[in-house]
Design a protein that fits this description.
The protein is mainly β. It has two helices and 28 strands. The protein has a domain at about 140-375: 7 Propeller (Methylamine Dehydrogenase, Chain H), CATH 2.130.10.30. The strands form seven sheets. A four-stranded antiparallel sheet has the order 1-2-3-4, with no helix packed on it. The longest helix is centred in the first third of the chain and has 10 residues, at about 5-15.
């Protein structure tokens, strides 16, 4: 089903986005966080497919962008091009293709948006535009394209949603609309494009799911519905569209999978089914749809891959297959579907790239190839 998906969905950038722009109905928020006093600060950012998140220090969750499936969780299915507050008491959040997850400080997991494959984990396959509680005892979350992952404090990994490529790693390819335990001894996890990555406490990286572009990094392009060990010495990872990154504890960045737009940053546009080192001195990594962001320990932000909507933020719309420095003074970043977010050390949030559904949150639906301040 997913064979050739990265080519097919790249076309959606031109086609589906045109449709989404036509569907924009607008939203009139009661509060615009750009107008508040600055008493609270942004502490975390996250990018969904075509909707984005900002978490403030008071636990309020703010969203902007496409809401057609209810993924903003604000009670309607409208888009918004300004940031709107949708939830309180939040500690972490994650965005999938068209669904959203929010972890509250009490360990309860909440979900909203597209439920067609069971990715909300609330026992049905209905969409919802209101946040619903779906799990308890959770310590970390990640949203794949159409599946969701939750890590509990005992190190057990739980999953729900689309399982058709084996991304749950439980020996079958079934979907589920209830949370099921899929692995133990896990310290971190990432849901990618129909695949899942799990980091164990010993630094070993494990993978399951779709491998058609080599993104599992195990030397072939096969799918697997059981967890396989693919790398050692890993401290963090990120999943993009048919490609994955692994950050090692020594600051070296490794990549595997689809490289057709240069998003691996290894100097070519070839795919690879083995992990290749692509950068050094890295402290954090984020994979967008077909572009990538790497944060270095000195606060410089580096980017590579597709730039057709300005998502690299380097003043043009060209692609690059080598890493280029695009911003300084950055503390966190997030890559979405043809847009990028960067949180600076002064607490200001900056964005660049495709804005056709309001996902930049700057009050219009215009794309930009240079970084603009959108929230503080």
């Amino acid at each position: 089903m997913i064979s050739g998906a990265f080519n097919r969905i790249r076309v959606l950038t031109a086609v589906t986005f045109s449709l989404l722009i036509g569907l924009w109905t607008g939203c009139s928020p009661t509060t615009n966080p750009n107008n508040d006093s600055g008493a609270v600060s942004i502490i975390q950012i996250e990018a969904g497919c075509i909707h984005n998140f900002a978490l403030k220090s008071d636990g309020t969750l703010w969203v902007t962008g496409y809401g057609g499936n209810g993924q903003l969780g604000n009670g309607n299915n409208n888009n918004t091009n300004v940031w709107v507050q949708v939830l309180t008491g939040v500690s972490k959040m994650a965005g999938g293709a068209s669904h959203s997850l929010a972890l509250k400080s009490d360990g309860t997991l909440w979900a909203t948006g597209d439920g067609g494959f069971g990715q909300l984990g609330n026992g049905n396959t209905n969409d919802t535009n209101l946040w619903v509680q779906v799990l308890t005892g959770v310590s970390a979350i990640s949203a794949g394209y159409d599946h969701s992952l939750a890590l509990k404090s005992d190190g057990t990994l739980w999953a729900t949603g689309y399982g058709g490529e084996g991304e749950f790693g439980i020996g079958n390819n079934n979907n589920t609309n209830v949370w099921i335990e899929v692995l133990t001894g896990v310290s971190k996890m990432t849901g990618g494009y129909y695949c899942s990555l799990a980091l164990k406490s010993d630094g070993t990286l494990w993978a399951a799911g779709y491998g058609g572009a080599g993104q599992l990094g195990n030397g072939n392009n096969n799918n697997t519905n059981v967890w396989i060990q693919v790398l050692t010495g890993v401290s963090a990872m990120a999943g993009g569209n048919c490609y994955n990154f692994a950050l090692k504890s020594n600051g070296t960045l490794w990549a595997a999978g689809y490289g057709g737009f240069g998003q691996l940053g290894n100097g070519n546009t070839n795919d690879t089914n083995v992990w290749v080192q692509v950068l050094t001195g890295v402290s954090a990594i984020s994979a967008g749809y077909d572009h990538s962001l790497a944060l270095k320990s000195d606060g410089t932000l580096w980017a590579t891959g597709y730039g057709g909507f300005g998502q690299l933020g380097n003043g043009n719309t060209n692609a690059t297959n080598v890493w280029i420095q695009v911003l300084t003074g950055v503390s966190k970043m997030a890559g979405g579907y043809d847009c990028s977010l960067a949180l600076k050390s002064d607490g200001t949030l900056w964005a660049t790239g495709y804005g056709g559904n309001g996902q930049l949150g700057n009050g219009n639906n215009v794309s930009t190839n240079s970084w603009i301040n959108v929230l503080q």
